[in-house]
Amino acid sequence: MDRIRIVGGQRLNGAIPILGAKNATLPLMIAGLLTEDTLILDNVPRLADVNQLQRILGNHGVDIMIAGKRPGEEPNHGSTLHISAKTIVDTTAPYDLVSRMRASFWVVAPLVARMGGAKVSLPGGCAIGTRPVDLLIMALEKLGAGIEIESGYVIARAPKGLRGGEIVFPKVTVGGTHTALMAASLARGTTVIENAAREPEIGDVADCLNKMGANISGAGTSRIVVEGVARLNGARHSVLPDRIETGTYAIAVAMTGGDVVLQHARPELLQAALDVLAQTGAAVTPTNEGIRITRNGASLDPVEVTTAPFPGFPTDLQAQLMALMTRARGTSHITEAIFENRFMHVQELVRLGARIKLDGDTATIEGVSRLKGAPVMATDLRASVSLVIAALAAEGETTVNRVYHLDRGFERLEEKLGACGAAIQRISD
Ligand code: UD1
Predict the structure, then answer these.
(1) Which mutation among 47, 147, 174, 181 tests ligand 1's pocket best, with the greatest number of atoms within 8 A of CB?
(2) Where does the pLDDT of residue 382 fall: very low under 50, low under 70, confident under 90, or very high at 90 and above?
(3) Most buried residue, 30, 136, 284, 331, by most Cβ within 10 Å?
(4) Residue 135 and residue 156: Cα distance in Å, rounded?
């Protein structure tokens, strides 16, 4: 198992290219199941989760071709996927595949919409608390699917096709909204989705579906209207930049000090997080190239932050912000309002010398003047990158174990940070 070794204390200077968003790429790949034609996705990040989803879709009979580099192409471009679900050979998604990546449960929507039936394993446990799928199932039922749960599998049936309906989510859910959008695109009649997630990745998927011939309006707002169509066609779509990768590197620069341009990043995708960073004392400047983050010497100010659905502060940046606040001058409070039990990074940050107290869903972080390197363990994707951020500012050497969590969501992290001056190295056993 790979580890990452970091010697803290180097400032970050230079440029970091931001690639396509993982959380848009996964549903976009799944949307490829909706059509017999080829869907071409550009700016796809090279991530373990993308490879895993490729295997899952392959099991349904989907051919995915990853185009090689073309002459003159920038090394920092994402890859291009050609996704062809001409013939679906199997509508079952088995436990051993779905349990490895929660988002793969979302295949249930296109499969039942196009094939009239699907059998998809419940995703099972997850390191960041119970993450149920009741609202995804509710959405499919509202569109006329019959649902049974049998031996850990969700069996969805709509032999005569789905029909439009009204879906009112009692709570904002990204996965629920993706599921509803994909299913409604091929349903007969009109679907209205109320209290829809407004995350930019929802808008990106809706844009792609519209290019495929869907008729979706209101994506990006909390009320989405979908006029179903009989079939969808192929299209070409470039994945929007990853706001979580952007925010992660922005926080890393705030932590170490320095001056870095996050190329291709779009500030409007993470304004709430950039506002918090500005409050801590980092300078955030939108440029033609992307976003420039600088911090010179000045100490970090503490903040009070509660995670919220978009446009609020994203839960996927909570662990990284907490790492930053371990070095603030004063006491910060961070409340996690989306997921229960998304605090596994706390104990590991404490191993590096952080002072953090947990009380229910709120962490109180008392800034310390120094962190000290230690061996730590990555527990989930975002938690593990928070340990990297802390290690960049810790004295001495930190080894982050179980790096496969990082590889799920960050492409060439050690190369990108290394190019900006970090002393960071991957060790493969
Ligand atoms: C997506 C993101 C993840 C992010 C999360 C919240 C992807 C691949 N993943 O996950 O990175 O952290 O949004 O922004 O895009 N819930 C229910 N019942 C359901 C579904 C969800 O109660 O059927 C609850 C969850 O437990 C959670 C909240 O709703 O408390 C939000 O979850 P949701 O937005 O669905 O997260 P994901 O789509 O799984």
Answers:
(1) 174
(2) confident
(3) 30
(4) 14
Model's pTM, two decimal places? 0.96
CA distances from 378 to 309, 396, 412 (A): 25, 19, 17
Question: From CA 201, how far away is CA 358, in angstroms rounded?
Answer: 31
In which residue are the tokens 């779009």 written? Answer: 266
3-state helix, strand, coil in the chain (%, to 5): 35, 30, 35
Q: Which residues pair with 284 in a beta bridge?
A: 293
Of 66, 126, 149, 427, which is the active-site residue?
126
Q: Which two tokens stand for residue 41?
A: 């996705």
What is the band of 186 on the pLDDT scale with cuts at 50, 70, 90? Answer: very high
Task: Say what the pLDDT of residue 403 is.
Answer: 87
Q: Which atom of ligand 1 is nearest to the CA of 22?
A: 8
Query: Is 126 part of the annotated catalytic residue set?
Result: yes
Ligand 1 midpoint to CA 173 (Å): 5
